[in-house]
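Notes, p. 3: input format for complexes.
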Amino acid sequence: MPHDHPHDHPVSRDHSEPRPAFAALLDQVLKVLDDKDILTTAQVTAQIEDMDGRTPTEGAKIIARCWDDPDYLDLARTDLQAAAGQVGIAMPAYPKFVLLDNTGDVHHVVVCTLCSCYPRPILGPPPVWYKSRNYRARVVVEPRDVLAEFGTTVPQDKKLQVVDSTADCRYLVLPERPAGSDGMTQEQLAGLVTRDSMIGVTRLNVPVT
Ligand code: FE
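Output follows (209 residues plus fe (iii) ion):
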């Protein structure tokens, strides 16, 4: 296909690698959007770079404040976008984001069985295993076994809820607050929170001091 148009290619910024098969189609879609003044390729690239630059540190701020501030927890449960905004995370209006409480009675774990839907504005890019066919296929069939491979034992008498993300709705797990974390500041609490605990494949422990 001729390749004389001037814009960048957000899906393959490293031109030393072969471009994926869908890239030519994406080029044409971007060109139409650009030609119609709907969206420029530069805007698409900037959005990708913004999301790629985010890290689980953003999500940890939400979790720490949920543990520390009951009013904020109420807000996060009803409007996670607004709650994220309150801790300085710029959120898109779409898709919907939902907080899942892990408690003594129920443990949530998140997957996207179809592809790799993930709360990128809050956690950054997903880990490689999250996108793997192995994880996506198995966690819905044998979740206790999969979690055990992450070192997480969920007792048989505890409900284990596997939640399937979609393009329209993304989930953030609120891990159980670690025992022994009373009196910590929000900053200290945030330091305890891991990416995997916010996906639900691990639980949190207070570090031994
Ligand atoms: Fe997906």
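Residues 112, 114-117, 165 surround fe (iii) ion (CB under 6 Å).
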